[in-house]
Design brief:
The protein is α/β, with parallel strands linked by helices and 333 residues long. It contains 13 helices and 12 strands. Helix content is 42%, strand content 19%. The strands form 2 sheets. The chain has a 6-stranded parallel sheet with strand order 3-2-1-4-5-6, with helices on both faces. It has a 6-stranded mixed sheet with strand order 7-8-9-10-12-11, sandwiched between helices.
Length: 333
């Protein structure tokens, strides 16, 4: 057992109640992580609350059939009490408190012990009591598989196996991204042996497209902006687009992949106008640092995939600033 595992295990063993959370606008790895880790802790007799800033995306709700995940803003008073009174808080699939948005202040102020389990770069270990950080892993769910198995692999039920598989599948882009190595497939084979159904899970996440979602995608593609001789592409989804088609941020999964599938593109940036901020998603190819672009705007991520949320911004005013930053980082290479 590694020292990082040991510290986290010590907190788990001596704590009776936990609050789990993840980053704003959670993806498959985020929801898979909180559900898998939550069910694991419950199996060990712990009291567990899962509280997120954002609602669970529509295509991931099947992972939470009991509606265990609370949304902080639905009842901030009660959720704050849960965070302040629990023994331990586990932050999963992010290593920055500000990525929990509305929950940041109360998490920081809580006397609870703090655990971070994550695969992103840039962690400040002094902010947590225990850190399990493995940046070489393709997904946080990959780390959780190892962590749970280091205790006892009998904890991995079909439910937990499914959640872990979803996290790995989505964060590897259905096994297309660079960190999809042989170990990823070996872990997924074990998860299938534990009951995860790859056909069912893929269909639930990727094959649930409505007519309105297709129309939004068509509008998104028709508005693409190309720069630097077709090596940079910017895509935009506005609040008016969501209203027109009766959709939300839940329904734009995979849009960034569309940007990067265009021949000749080296960097793609998606701008999503939300009610209170602009969400930026950066994607890059080769040795162009998408994470540094995201950090430039207060975010973070992986080398070829990063994200940030910019408050108080206007899309039209933000675009030239983002484009200038992208060109600067491309020229550094």
């Amino acid at each position: 057992m590694t020292d990082s595992y040991r510290k986290a295990r010590e907190i788990i063993d001596k704590s009776g109640s936990f609050v789990l959370t993840t980053h704003v606008a959670p993806d498959g790895d985020a929801i898979g992580s909180v559900m898998a880790f939550g069910k694991y802790l419950m199996a060990k007799g712990k009291k567990v609350e899962i509280i997120n800033h954002s609602p669970t995306p529509f295509n991931l709700k099947f992972l939470d059939p009991e509606n265990l995940i609370r949304v902080f803003q639905d009842d901030p008073g009660h959720c704050s009490q849960l965070i302040m009174n629990c023994d331990a808080v586990a932050v999963l699939d992010t290593n920055e408190y500000h990525r929990t948005r509305s929950m940041e202040t109360v998490i920081r102020e809580s006397p609870a012990l703090k655990i971070c389990i994550d695969h992103h770069t840039g962690i400040k270990e002094e902010m947590f009591d225990a850190v399990v950080s493995e940046t070489e892993c393709a997904a946080t769910c990959e780390i959780l598989y190892d962590f749970i198995c280091s205790d006892n692999d009998s904890y991995i039920t079909k439910e937990i196996a499914s959640a872990l598989y979803v996290g790995i599948m989505t964060d590897t882009g259905s096994f297309r991204h660079p960190r999809t190595d042989s170990r990823v497939f070996r872990i997924c084979a074990e998860l299938l042996d534990k009951g995860a159904d790859p056909v069912f899970l893929y269909d639930e996440i990727c094959n649930r497209v409505s007519k309105e979602m297709m129309q939004l995608q068509a509008a998104f593609l028709s508005g693409l902006e190309f720069h630097q001789n077709g090596t940079i592409v910017l895509g935009t989804v506005l609040q008016s687009d969501f209203r027109k088609y009766g959709l939300s941020i839940d329904h734009i999964e995979g849009f960034t992949s569309l940007l990067m599938s265009i021949e000749g593109i080296k960097v793609g940036v998606m701008f999503v106008e939300l009610r209170d901020n602009i969400k930026l998603s950066f994607r890059s190819k080769g040795n162009i640092p998408a994470n540094e672009m995201a950090i430039h705007f207060g975010g973070g991520g992986h080398f070829n995939a990063g994200g940030a949320n910019v408050n108080g911004a206007n899309v039209d005013e933000l675009k030239p600033k983002v484009l200038d930053a992208v060109i600067k980082y491309m020229n550094k290479v």
